[in-house]
Amino acid sequence: MKHLFTCFSFLLLSVISYGQEYLVYGTFTDQEGVPVSGATVIHAESNNGTQTDDNGYYELSVPGGAQTLTFSFSAEKAIKRTIDVTEATQLNVKISESDILLDEVLVSAIRVTGDTPVTFSNLSAEEMESRNLGQDIPVLMNYLPSVVTTSDAGAGVGYTGIRVRGSDATRVNVTINGIAYNDAESHGTFWVNMPDFASSVENLQLQRGVGTSTNGAGAFGASLNLLTDAVAEDPYAEISSSIGSFDTRRANIKFSTGKLNDHIEVSGRLSRIKSDGYVDRASSDLKSYFLQGAYVDDNTLIKALIFGGHEITYQSWNGVEDWQIEQYGRTFNSAGAIYDEDGNIVDYYDNEVDNYKQDHFQLHWNERLNNNWSSNIAIHYTRGRGFFEQYRQDEDFATYGFEPITVGGEEINTTDLIRRRWLDNHFYGATFSAKYVNDKMEFIAGGAWNKYEGGHFGEVIWARYASNSEIRDRYYDDNSVKTDFNAYTKMIYDLTEDISLYGDLQFRRVAYEANGDDTGLVDDEFNFFNPKAGLTYHIDQNNDLYFSYARANREPNRNDYESGNPEPETLNDFELGWRYATPAVKINANTYYMRYKNQLVLTGALNDVGAPLRENVGDSYRLGLEVEATLYFAEKFLLRPNVALSTNKNKEFYFQRDGTLENLGDTNISFSPNFIAGNNFTYLPTENLQLSFLSKYVSEQYMGNIDAESSKLDSYFVNDFNVKYTIETDSFFKSIVLSGLVNNIFDVEYISNGYFYTYDDTWTDPDAVTTIEGAGYYPQAGINFLVGATMTF
After folding, report:
1. Which of 141, 365, 497, 632 has CA 20 to 30 A from 293's CA?
2. DSSP label at residue 327
3. Which three-class secondary structure state does DSSP give residue 57?
4. What pLDDT score was predicted for residue 556?
5. Angle value at C-alpha 411, between 409 and 416, nearest 5 degrees
6. Structure pTM?
């Protein structure tokens, strides 16, 4: 508390420069001139805001000069107006067809608004801008409710992960412009394959729980929907660069032609990020690109996008165990270690890396047919290929198909070697939707068909004893195919002026074939029916209540088949929420009850490539309360706190300890903290300066499901400090934005992720089985910083 008081005092004592302020007022109306109530109006330079009343009227105090106001009337689209303010100014805004056309139609099938009884949070590019200095999207989302993030390298660059309501990344469904991004086979989301992608994201929406029908693997903890850059009206170019701790460096360049001949826009981005990482040798060398071409007129918008990345990351997925921390320190990384005969580390292999390329192509055609009907169709293709390379000692010949050899009269059947394990993937398909709206109803029908073809193979590129091997021999060569089809309808119907009904029906068919040594021969087909329903009650212009029920079914992933014959899992999700909004205060509060059948929970253990293992646990549940708020006060201060309280239990959990099967009763679900809190305190002393103090608390959590003390991760409380200063110029540059971020400002030693394993020991006593427990951790960096500058011209 002493540190918090010191920082708070620093903010209050900062030099304040007040300029003359004027009133901007007006009405916000739809295409027919009907007032739009509840729209959010934000002053972009200060982030102060208000909402329109029942007559669509708003008023806001802003400084003199060129000012930008953003009008948000849905979760998908915002309208910006820039005006020169020299006195009290009236600004009336009317929604045009182009304002609601493409991007809104593109994602309306999977996104929700305040009229939908779904729990969600939105995050815009403007809100991410001051902290977007090279860290991955999960890190930028760290301060949303019920979110826990982690980084293998410890500093937010490279392999990063996210959990929502205790559900790991394989259960968070991610879409980009409505196209599934999760790996079809592992269900994982590898942000490292798209470094600096946040710089091409217009906004994102995190739906907690089952959410609405979406494409790809079903959401079992949350769904994350990203919308890439909107079509820019005016041309611009942008150069951005940042540097920071652990020799972290980022550089990117963005551009847009603006609308050429009022119809065509081309935009793009190139990025490069390098970092040594907090953990030893956990370096990252990341490159990415984004190119978009668009055609737009009054009724049509066509977008073609190509984006992707190439990552070379030194492996750091081994984590570190307690004895290693004591002997080597918390940044120790065992990946690439070379041992002598006594087990001492004598060197490290310098190319123990993950090397992967991924390229995405999307083509979207959105059409406004008339005032009631609109449609979207998209095709997509993703190409992924790459390997991870490992130095291995004393490997058995049999693993690689080598025949024993005789050297100097001695039979040799083991060798030191370097291997590469490859992925060679194709993912392609189409999505479609049609939307009908009238005064009382919004109806959407759509679906998707996707196919994944994956090659898995291994090569030995060097061996001390190569036996009978030949160059480019494959010591395993597996293939897998997955097809995924879904069709859905959803509707919001205004039963009365105060009550809206919501319904959503989805049918999904999944077929999966695999022939790997790890999976065995797999030929499974699943047919899922996922209904959702709810209602929203508009108490008055400031208060809404909502209730929803959603059912989700989900297939196992590739790693689940390693452990035997997994069952598909089922979730029944109940959500009850309250939304309150005034110009000065916004509150979202909700309770949830998520009841699972055959939930595939993390065991805590990892496989041989660092991927988490899961198992069916029968009955389990998550029960929680989430509250988030936005508070404006004194015109210069913004407070955004959120808390999440939950209990997460396996029912009647069985575990075999010391050779005996025990009923442990109700146990805590792994990686599910019972209390998570976040806060963003922002001070705006002038229109050009923003100071933010961000806090995150995560309570203790278990890394396994047996409530073992050795599997417990301690609670942690970390704080960041963020500053943004904007310089408006009349020179070659339109503006220069300077940003600074100090992470973990109080230098807390904390761990946000780890692993837990058990095994049966019969060596100590051949007549008895003893269960041994072990754990490893991924320590996060102490105090570290990033500073950057963005120049727009």
Report:
1. 141
2. H
3. strand
4. 94
5. 120
6. 0.88
Express each pLDDT in 673-726 by its tens digit. 999 999 999 999 988 899 999 999 999 999 999 999 999 999 999 999 999 999
Q: Which fold has domain 21-94?
A: Immunoglobulin-like (2.60.40)
Q: Coil, strand or helix: which one is 245?
A: helix
Query: How many Å separate Cα 100 from the centre of its chain?
Result: 26
For residue 93, what are its two tokens?
């805004």
Q: How far apart are CA 195 and CA 193, in angstroms?
A: 6
Which token pair is 464? 């001390």
d(CA 779, CA 279): 8
Q: What are phi and psi of 7, to 5 degrees?
A: -65, -40
Beta-strand pair 21-29/89-90: parallel
What are the DSSP calls for 708-754, one per residue?
Answer: -GGGEEPPEEEEEEEEEEEEE-SSS-SEEEEEEEEESTT----EEEE
How many Cβ atoms from other residues are within 10 Å of residue 394's Cβ?
A: 9
**Average pLDDT of every residue of the chain:** 90
Q: Distance (Å, rounded) from C-alpha 358 to C-alpha 425?
A: 9
CA-closest candidate to residue 92, choices 24, 159, 173: 24
The answer to whether 447 and 485 have CB atoms below 8 angstroms apart is yes
Task: For residues 171 and 669, give the distance between their C-alpha atoms in angstroms, rounded to a whole number.
Answer: 14
Element (H, E) at 127: helix 125-129
CA distance 459 to 421: 6
Q: How far apart are alpha carbons 231 and 103 in whole angstroms? A: 9
pLDDT in tens, 419-428: 999 999 999 9
Give the CA angle between residues 161, 165, 167 to the nearest 5°. 50
Distance CA 535, CA 499 (A): 7
Half-sphere exposure of 643 (CA within 13 A, CB side): 3
Residue 288 to residue 230: CA distance in whole angstroms:
19
Beta bridge partners, 527, equal 509
160 and 152 Cβ atoms separated by less than 8 Å:
yes
- Residue 515 has what DSSP assignment? -
How far, in Å, CA of 558 to CA of 455, rounded?
13
Q: Which amino acid is at 98?
A: S
> What is the spatial distance between Cα 14 and Cα 147, in angstroms, rounded to a whole number?
32
Per DSSP, the three-state class of 31 is coil
**pLDDT at 9 > cutoff 70:** no
CA distance 725 to 686: 10
Coil, strand or helix: which one is 179?
strand
Question: At the topology level of CATH, where does 228-792 sit?
Answer: Maltoporin; Chain A (2.40.170)
Beta strands 120-124; 264-275: pairing state: unpaired
Taking the C-alpha atoms of residue 727 and residue 472, their distance in angstroms, rounded to an integer, is 57
User: Whole-angstrom Cα distance, residue 148 to residue 157?
Assistant: 16
Structure tokens at 619: 């009955």
Q: Where are the domains of the chain?
A: 21-94, 228-792
Q: How far apart are CA 465 and CA 406, in angstroms?
A: 10
* CA 594 – CA 171 distance, rounded (Å): 14
Token digits of residue 46 = 């200060």
Burial class of residue 302, CB neighbours in 10 A (0-12, 13-18, 19+): middle
Contact indicator for 594, 573 with CB cutoff of 8 Å? yes
- Confirm if 616 and 599 have CB atoms less than 8 A apart: yes
Contact 671, 168 (CB under 8 A): yes
Rounded Cα–Cα distance for residues 330 and 321 (Å): 9
- Both tokens of 149, joined, read 């993030």
Cβ within 8 Å of residue 695, ≥6 positions away:
4, 677, 678, 679, 681, 717, 718, 719, 720
Q: From the CB of residue 24, how many other CB atoms can be counted at a distance below 10 Å?
A: 21
Query: Over 661-679, what HEC string results?
Result: EEECCCEECCCCCCEEEEE
CB atoms near residue 435 (< 10 Å): 22
